[in-house]
Design a protein that fits this description.
Blueprint: H1 9-12, H2 26-37, E1 44-51, E2 61-62, H3 66-75, H4 80-89, H5 96-103, E3 111-114, E4 120-121, E5 128-133, H6 134-139, H7 141-165, E6 170-173, H8 181-195, E7 199-200, H9 203-209, H10 219-223, E8 235-237, E9 244-246, H11 247-262, H12 271-283, E10 289-291, E11 308-314, E12 318-325, H13 342-357, E13 364-367, H14 372-390, E14 399-402, H15 408-416, E15 423-426, H16 428-431, E16 441-445, E17 464-470, E18 476-483, E19 495-498, E20 506-509, E21 513-516, E22 519-523, E23 526-527, H17 534-545, H18 550-553, E24 562-565, H19 567-580
Parallel strand pairs: 6-7, 6-15, 10-13, 13-14, 14-15, 18-24
Antiparallel strand pairs: 1-5, 1-16, 2-4, 3-5, 3-22, 8-9, 11-12, 17-18, 17-21, 19-20, 22-23
Helix pairs in contact: 3-7, 7-8, 7-15, 8-17, 11-13, 12-13
Length: 587
Amino acid sequence: MSSGKLVTQREMSRQNGIVQPLLTDLYQITMAYAYWKSGKVNDVAVFDLFFRTNPFQGEFTIFAGLEECLKFLENFHYSDSDIEYLKQTLPSDIEQEFFDYLKDLTCNDVKLSAIEEGSVVFPRVPLLRIEGPLIITQLLETTLLTLVNFASLMATNAARYRMVAGKNISLLEFGLRRAQGPDGGLSASKYSYIGGFDGTSNVLAGKMFNIPVKGTHAHSFVTSFSTLDDLQHVTVTHPETKAQYNLFQLSLDWRKKLSTIIGVSPEEASDGELAALISYAQAFPSGFLALVDTYDVKRYNFQALPTRHNAGYNSNCGSNVTIQIPTIRSTRGYSTVERTLRSGLLNFCSVALALNDCGHRALGVRIDSGDLAYLSILARDTFRQVAESCQLPWFNDLTIVASNDINEETILSLHEQGHAIDCFGIGTHLGEIASPFYLYNTYYYNIYNEKQMDVAKVTIPGHKEGYRLFGADGHALVDLLQRSNERPPAVGRKVLCRHPFQEAKRAYVIPSKVEHLYKVYWSEGRICTAPKPLSEVRERVQASLRTLRQDIKRNLNPTPYKVAVSDDLYNFIHDLWLQNAPIGELS
């Protein structure tokens, strides 16, 4: 699916096994029986799936989940076991003919129109429009909502992380172990990638959705090694010369030499940690990215060591080369290597330089605790000192990955502190979304809603079309809903845009560009517009976000985006409102 080719019918049929007609609320089936009993089998309905409020206290949402909705329509069928279960569950006096009707029910007469997946969307603008026989369109409600809701929530959350992190920092999804079940974990991996993340730790998601899979090792790997005697195999092969090198001895030699550069005695470093890092480097010599904060030593203040020279080893030039030891810079009252990382950084740098002798370059480190801004700066300073002292410029550019309960506010704060992090691993706050962060999706029959006295819940009835109107600067100005029989807005032609419920709020817009929001994706029992590959949906998210002004996307007090209705639709809504509003009587 990531190849960019059109999705085949076979690929589309690879549906999540639990997404089936019985993944619904009981009242959908009881309503279906009541419709059937009332002779409404041939009644036609139009439903809108929309939401009322943007999540995360923001002013935009990313629409996702469309592909899964199409799979559901394509595979909709009540199996024999489904029918048997319903017979046991529903009241015994339900007629057999109704079950026969369900057994033959398909989505062949349903038409689904939708906004393109990956688009930025806004409250009250329908994401899906479902047309067809009343009973089948009613039965689709709960499943379509659950397929769109969590997907859009995850994609939106991921897009927000991408915006606060910036385009130059990598984002990895680490949320599987704390996700809301296996299906929630897979969805989180898929839709966080759509929203802008660069990879996932979820191996199954990588296989299923062709998402780059990333990961290193856990603290448990480090603690499984107690001493250097735990090492069994210590050789690494040079990728070009094929010569065998003793990684163990090279690492010990480098640890002794590096201790004078970064001001850490080998006796302060954990031998078990060194053994673990050597073992991991031997297994992955060209992919060595190590966790360096397993052992936490209490903080102490140290005097900065003076600049001096020392006979040492330079892997580029031989063994008897003078190494310049720069002055160790003090930060926040501590030495360059803060106590939390004293063991981890010394051991990592030792193994990384040993790998360099063997013809391999390490990738970097991961920090999983503590003051991430401070520790990342310390790690970068250490890498810079090693790079200068050993004349290895690439060492300065080693990747620093940070994890540990990171959220949007954490990233914003780290930016303010001038961190040196290249990549964030984010799990809990991405995939385990808790109240009040929800997406209130709604599925409404396109007739007037009797909750008319509660403006927050008033629906916009009728068969509608949606258009996005753009200004001369290329930014989206307003989403315009109008009745389907109206003339579409056109570039350069003035159009009156009205607030759906507030009479005085209106404005003329002369668009420089008009984008029709809806395409027909399902009709006559088949997919008529193929969903795009995940990689293209991912690109669509970023392209769509670029059409919004920055004040709409900002983290704090964003500006609401305008959703308007045409003058004709406004009058239609308010005529219905007046017709249905009760008239009081005074005496």
